[in-house]
């Protein structure tokens, strides 16, 4: 699994007060692949996403994106550089329609301080947003405020909003959280499709699915990288088994 | 009742796209709905002040307790230019707006990164600082007696010199500026920048994740707001022909919060409704009792507790056009 690295974390640590949420995390994500990050609750997966997307400043270490040191750059700059994230806890513009949620995200690439011409004069954004919503299965829900969508639809909208930034690196934090098995399957299909065109890093608890679709898997535990490798390597890893068995849910872990 | 509701809803829907034009038409006849013209002038000026305040409060979701600074800087800037330097009123008005803008850059720059109550407190403290500076600088500002001699007698309109002391002339003069300001604001709200303001109000975190510089956008909105409030202040100075120190007082900051909330934060017309209702209560109830502030305060409480969308916002909601 060689090839170009799109983003690498180098000795990243993050402390909240006295608590160390991440310690010495070094991983590299190969461009064009789907990498999954797994790990028990509280392992530091979301924190790691926050660090590499610029939402949190790491306490130590550095992050390199496409050859450029991006440690400490603010999140809005990273978004424009090509890193987008969907949130574990749905984070949308609740009163705005599904279409406007995606349109405004797409607008960030072309106009941020334009005060005079009407927003409707910006070419292509509505079409782009409509196409993205079609792609995540919300083509019939364009005019519905985000707050009025069903949970599964909101999760899909999360992804569409992230895609509107045209990211080269897409971070998905438990995109199927709280979804029915059926919704989960269709979102997973979507993710596989998305991963053919860009680099995707996925945090997910549903282990069987993860093992089926990922090129690589990183296991975080207590803020540290416990193991890293292909799904087969991870399945065979004794330490990983122990951690998941220790959690008392070997079946859920899908490690057999 | 429900027929009325539907009909009103339809009217509002029809007016929506032409809201600036509809408001101008309304304001053209407005003086005849008021007990006297000076009150109508005050509604326009304080309404414009509240409109400017609403840019940060209603549209961006920032509660500033220091907006008297921009109203006051506009008033003093315009007043000093006329009374001390004898500048013609167009330049003086421009100077007032500019001074308010500079004040907004400074105060906004120092406060915009604070959140919630801390933002309110920092803006309050900085506005008080401005108040004391102007209060102390007596040779220039007239100190506690206020700035006198802001005399504008005539407004030259080509060859015609309009008598600025005539209330009707004064009203329509102010209305020209209010109309221009509303037209600009309407465009800004419709612009891509206006969309970013909505996004920030809805979800700051997500707006940032989308690639928007949230602090920079807030600062831009704050300065824009300061410019509008400065224009209102400049018009106030010309209207009164003096600048009382109260324009910079924190009570003025409180007043604009009350008017915006009473009328309906985040609505286009609400600030004027709030200003009109407040000034009418002050004017009419004070004829009956000195306790008019009790009436205004009670009404304000009722709205904050039971109709958080304010008078205009609640009306829009009632006719099915949520603000
Ligand atoms: N802002 C914060 N302040 C203090 N502690 C935090 C903060 N954010 C996260 N933590 C702690 O850091 C640890 C890692 O949290 P994180 O959200 O990264 O875990 P996670 O792997 O995403 O877990 P989950 O699977 O439940 O989403 C947890 O113990 C959490 O309580
Ligand atoms: Mg998490």
Give a written overview of the molecule.
The complex is a heterodimer of chains A (256) and B (323). Chain A has helices spanning 45-52, 75-81, 98-107, 125-135, 151-163, 181-195, 207-213, 231-236, 238-246, 250-253, and strands spanning 5-16, 19-30, 34-38, 60-65, 68-69, 83-86, 169-173, 199-203, 216-221, 224-229. The mean pLDDT of chain A is 91. In chain A, strands 6-7-8-3-9-10 form a 6-stranded mixed β-sheet, sandwiched between helices. Chain A has a 4-stranded antiparallel β-sheet with strand order 2-1-4-5, covered by helices on one side. Chain A is of the alpha/beta class and 256 residues long. In chain A, a hairpin with a 2-residue loop joins strand 9 (216-221) and strand 10 (224-229). Chain B has 323 residues and is mainly α. Chain B has one domain (21-256). Chain B has a two-stranded antiparallel sheet with strand order 1-2. The radius of gyration of chain B is 19 Å and the shape is globular. The structure holds adenosine-5'-triphosphate (ATP) and magnesium ion.
Q: What is the strand tally of chain B?
A: 2
What is the rounded Rg of chain B? Answer: 19 Å
Distance between the termini of chain A: 23 Å
Beginning-to-end CA distance, first to last residue of chain B:
21 Å
Number of strands of chain A: 10
Secondary structure elements and pairings:
The complex is a heterodimer of chains A (256) and B (323).
Chain A: E1 5-16, E2 19-30, E3 34-38, H1 45-52, E4 60-65, E5 68-69, H2 75-81, E6 83-86, H3 98-107, H4 125-135, H5 151-163, E7 169-173, H6 181-195, E8 199-203, H7 207-213, E9 216-221, E10 224-229, H8 231-236, H9 238-246, H10 250-253
Parallel strand pairs in A: 3-8, 3-9, 6-7, 7-8
Antiparallel strand pairs in A: 1-2, 1-4, 4-5, 9-10
Chain B: H1 2-15, H2 19-29, H3 37-57, H4 68-83, H5 89-111, H6 116-136, H7 138-141, E1 154-157, E2 160-163, H8 167-190, H9 192-202, H10 204-210, H11 214-240, H12 250-263, H13 270-288, H14 292-306, H15 310-318
Antiparallel strand pairs in B: 1-2
Helix pairs in contact in B: 2-8, 3-8, 3-11, 3-12, 3-13, 4-5, 4-6, 4-11, 5-6, 5-11, 8-9, 8-11, 9-10, 9-11, 12-13, 12-15, 13-14
The structure holds adenosine-5'-triphosphate and magnesium ion.
Adenosine-5'-triphosphate binds at residues 16, 19, 21, 39, 41-47, 88 of chain A.
